[in-house]
Amino acid sequence: MIAKKKKREIFRFALLLLLFVAVGFALYKHYSDDNKQTLIGEPAPNFKLKNINDKTVELQQSKGKVTLVNFWGSWCEPCKREMPLLQSMYSKYHNRGFEILSVNSQESNLAVKNYAQKYHLSFPVLLDLENQAGRAYNVYKLPASFLIDSNGKVVEGFEGELNKKQLEGWILEGLK
Can you give the residue ranges of the Thioredoxin domain (predicted)? Predict the structure, then answer.
């Protein structure tokens, strides 16, 4: 009788463990890079966010320009490493029709303003306090970047730290 009860407990435990693994895998697949790929070729989800100077900025204002929407956090090490590259590419290509909308995920205006000053950012730095833009772009890991063509369509999406070759290639292809 005890052996039968023990087997039943082991079976229940194994079944519960299998259920947790299945749910975890389903969540992982739902929030993985595959979701970013569903935006490619689609109109970019519009958003209206305040910048660090309390001015409302709307993505649609960038129509006609090649725009990089970059999601980041001040605590994110890859984001910190990526910022000087973004600033460099913005300085180099802004006059040719390239724009960056830098979207901070859920941090205070003061923290973001200090970060922008520290990295000497001259492109628009936006506050996504309620993560509305992040959800629209399926962003669950930082940094995440999306290149939007001059017609307002998402043409590239990447989760992780961009490198110079990758970003400059995107920009030059978009500006053609």
Answer: 38-176
